[in-house]
């Protein structure tokens, strides 16, 4: 019976609001017990002792929007390399998108992801399945069978389901299984540009993607949701107006949730200056006013989850004039420090922030993790809130190095990551 | 040859903006041994008007004035670029601009090579950086680049070791066009400051408009833009211009009327309903021109769509139209730009 005793920890369980000094015992891959008084009679014999030195012991992070290249584009990222990056970033569960070759739109392919994840990954990996066959936006996939096979939600990934009739039927049908639909909210005809539609875009001579490309799609889907029922989640909101729309819809009792990427909380369109393609992401980085509204959305709970939006692109896809470069930025290893900046800035309380990275995504996807509670899997991360470090792309574990945080000074990082009772990352260890 | 000369011009401070008399009048007559001309332009590349000071612009225009005179002589050939290699790298076809740069380089004594790389013939972008790196290995001193993507020229400037001139990048900038427009205006009106200039037409897709707005603003002109809302970029009101949707109101009291080309494919319903309707409301004819000052000049960067954005009679009116003069100024301005940038190039071999 393997046991690990975390002592001198600052136990933070966002779900219960717990934030106390104390200890935690892991036995047989599960959290056995925790609390301020645990080990008052001594630490159990034979347990590995981890002295947390007052650092935060939190449920491991759950990142529900990760793109990899497996299957089909393994040179960009495999499930294994993504899991290495995740472990180093304190992420114990990552959810991969179906935008692969082939597309994850069939039970056999969900099985493939689950098996490869089990055999090669060092953190939990679950797939979202495609909502429409081949991501073509026309015919719905086998939502029931895919869900039984292990798909945690249904999405066309970085493509919007543009056809209103298709979305209406998918929402209606998915309700039968309680399946979650995740939308990349964007009207394709309005989203032909390459960055936020703004004065800056005009100065750079780049075509813009207006905020209405996002808000119109969200408004449309919410109208559909009113008639069909079901569960609807906006993968990533990018602008103030979207936050306001969702805030209002929730007030009116609609079952809508949404996420935001850590990059959108930390950066804005001005970072693009000089045509820096690593800041070309979808949805686009928007104005500082939008960024502030997103932060406020996290603070007041309108925005449920924070994601990395991890999207590895190789150098060849980014070494182009801005308009021709591909969209996407990696983010697994910067998810935690980019998010913690909101706490350091005093904009979001710590438990609220960690909640958006732990129990909120767990609840959204129905995962039995994301909390510090006896009996749950020991998916844990030990966090040094204040540790300063510089993001060096060469040292990141992702195969692709397209990080928008390159050479940035950030604060806070994972010291140790545990998945199912197994230590998968120790900071400064050089290995896993 | 230059290596023998101990007086390296690069040692002089680059922030000098006043042009010494010797630079103004003798540049064309100097031999290569004497070509240690003082620097007048504190930039390595000319990627756009953005970032240039009024003094930078004035220095280039002053130098260009001397080249206008040189180009009107029987012997037009100078030697300030003798021994230098200039490559015109055009990813987007342009007869006018390319021949203007070619002539400018040749009249200054440079070896000029033209490379036209049709954007459609290469897989977009893929060979872009490779092409630049390959050309750079041939030791050019100046590369003139046009590309259909905004920012492409800046990207390439980071990959080469020579000076780069932007000959137009996407909808971003076309600095030598703005400079030649400014030279034309300054020679005709004696000044730029205080003039009212209307830029009319497809502002949205126009790099000429962006460079002109920046340059004219920096030189103290009042700039107006006149276009239907579908052809105006987002946030144009924050560019320091006045926005008009009505030609007659917009042209009221203008000293300069600058027309822009409207691409034919944008006239069939996507941005404006038809050629006919566009000309009716936004085409320049004598009636609309009548609202500008009586001595207002008409300009167009070319090539013109006669009968679409400009009436043929207006375009050919020698009393109002300076369109042909713009072409002449284009060569002189490009000579000034090449000369100014070459003065900052190393004059000694570095191994």
TrEMBL record, chain A:
UniProt EC number: 3.5.2.3
Domain Dihydroorotase catalytic, chain residue ranges per copy: 54-239
Top class in the EC scheme: hydrolase
GO CC terms, sorted: cytoplasm
Matching Pfam families: DHOase
GO molecular-function terms, A-Z: allantoinase activity; dihydroorotase activity; zinc ion binding
Assigned protein family: Belongs to the metallo-dependent hydrolases superfamily. DHOase family. Class I DHOase subfamily.
Gene encoding the protein: pyrC
Record protein name field: Dihydroorotase
Key word Nucleotide-binding present: no
InterPro entries assigned: DHOase, DHOase/Allantoinase_Hydrolase, DHOase_cat, Metal-dep_hydrolase_composite, Metal_Hydrolase
